[in-house]
Amino acid sequence: MRQIILDTETTGLSWERGNRVVEIGCVEFVERRPTGRTFHTYLNPECQFEQGAQEVTGLTVEFLADKPKFAQVVDEFLAFIDGAELVIHNAAFDVGFLDNELRLAGAQYGRLADRCSIEDSLLMARQRFPGQRNSLDALCKRLGVDNSHRQLHGALLDAQILADVYIALTSGQEEIGFAEPNAAAAAGPMPGLQLRADAPRPRVVVADDELAAHEARLERLRKKAGKAMWDQWQAPAVAVDADVPALA
User: Fold this and answer.
1) pLDDT tens-digit profile of 149-173?
2) Is 153 a catalytic residue?
3) Where are the beta strands (DSSP E) in the chain?
4) Bridge partners, 247 (sequence order)
5) Which of 31, 57, 73, 168 has the fewest CB atoms within 10 Å, i.e. is most exposed?
């Protein structure tokens, strides 16, 4: 499966009020592994930043003045993401802005959903951690992802951090070989592994010194508390089958 971890930076919070995209960052994954391919561009938004938005990104209108307009990079951008699953944190925000940019570039470009499936990592985080903060920074702290180098919001840097967060967020049994049980079954039994249902169960033999240490610990508990909870679970002695293998 091909996935594109995507982030944008904008001149404000609402494309409906005329705000535009000023940066796009994308990181490509195939089968949950980074390929090393990225897409990154700054954009001339042809408008001013809203108050506060400029401080978040550290970008300025002067810096962006000689950067390409979205219509100049739209074909390259779409070629990079086409057919992939997009992973976006708070997808409604970025998709709304990018769909608006596509509309302004020309009706022939359609919408992102016409070309890609979209996975919102924020919704995934809210399902896994209900009632908790699920911003990118909060998830980095919770999932052990290093974001110490993130001083300002940047689209490519945030996409790279989100990639680490997404992998940590979705890691599960498939990461340790349980995703394809049929493959293991098709391979047949492991050499030397007894699969007989009527085979005797192995018994565990505890070393004498470990048994003595265990009993001493129980005796201390009995003296201190009057009893040891372990005593109620001790099973009566049973005859040992000489044919049963011992595990030391």
Assistant:
1) 765 578 999 999 999 999 999 985 3
2) yes
3) 2-10, 21-30, 33-42, 85-88, 117-120, 203-204, 246-247
4) 204
5) 31
Q: What is the pLDDT of residues 119-140, one digit of tens each?
A: 999 999 999 999 999 999 999 9
Closest residue by Cα to residue 8 from 46, 42, 44, 48? 42
- Report the distance separating Cα 8 and Cα 3, nearest Å: 16
Structure tokens at 174: 């498939």
Same domain, yes or no, for 172 and 208? no
Residues 39 and 149 in one domain: yes
Q: Are residues 108 and 73 in the same domain?
A: yes
CATH of the domain at 135: 3.30.420.10
Q: Is residue 186 part of a domain?
A: no
Q: CB under 8 Å to 19, separation ≥6 — which residues?
A: 10, 11, 12, 13, 45, 47, 50, 53, 97
3-state secondary structure of 44: coil
Classify residue 241 by its DSSP letter: P
Residues 217 and 147 in one domain: no
Among 131, 98, 126, CA closest to 112: 98
Same domain, yes or no: 65 and 130:
yes
Catalytic residue among 40, 149, 153, 214: 153
Rounded to whole angstroms, how far apart are CA atoms 157 and 168? 17
Chain-centroid distance of CA 194 in Å reads 38
